[in-house]
Amino acid sequence: MRCALGISAAMVIGLLALPGPGLARTVFCLDEPREVVSETAADECEGRIVDAAEADRIRERRTERIRRALRQPVDGTFAGMRLAGVGTGFYVSEAAHILTNHHVIDECRGIGVTTATERFTSAARVVATDEGDDLALLQVATPPPGLAAIHVRPDWQPGDHVTIVGYPVQGLASLAPVGVEGQILRSTLPGGGGRLAINASIRRGTSGGPVLDENGLVVGVVFARIDTVRVYAETRRVVPDVAIAVDHDTMVGFLERHNVRFRPGHADGGNRPRDILDHARRFMARVQCYK
What we know:
Strand content: 35-45%
Helix content: 10-25%
CATH architecture of the domain at 148-276: Beta Barrel
Structural class: alpha+beta
CATH superfamily of the domain at 148-276: Trypsin-like serine proteases
């Protein structure tokens, strides 16, 4: 399974020309509700700062818990295969269609889907793919636990708030969906039509996840992030975290070409979900690639 991180340094500099920040002290930051430790700048830690020994113990406990979960039987469908990668998808139709990225399921011998509310893994079949736009449509035999609503007509402005939801790899892939907040940078990229740039910090595994507006409506599908280290090596410029998503029109066009009866959503400021992540859990899917 390939990772879609191929955003050129030239494109990044065309998108952003920002001064680089100074070096900051890094710490081990514990997100206690999810029991996840990450290394981050001290002033950006929103959880509890722990020492290296405690960080190692927490990671070992979480690793063992995930390993036990991945050893659970999946009705024999993937016998003799190995789990090669994990990505994200979301339910878009009553017929149990799931939208994800092409690179998440590319070259997989088997594809498993686990919902955010169940631990049982269902086998999925590939209905359609578009390698150029990095989109794929899957379908499972079990009813969807919930459906995402696709925005009818989003009107973006730089600075608009969004949430990206997915199953990021934190040492091992997350068992529960995680939400990352961000802001729209640009609705189109230089030389890259159909792409949305978002100031947000995402990790591998989030590929295929929905980009949600403040009403919980889907406005895009995230598929890549800027490689800040490579950009710095090539340009000596430090850029902020940037996620790249397939934009709304490209996503809707793909669904319509394949006759997916998705749920349209209308912006209504008086009906916004209080918690976007809790709202999204109903339609999220963990997509597993077996080889």
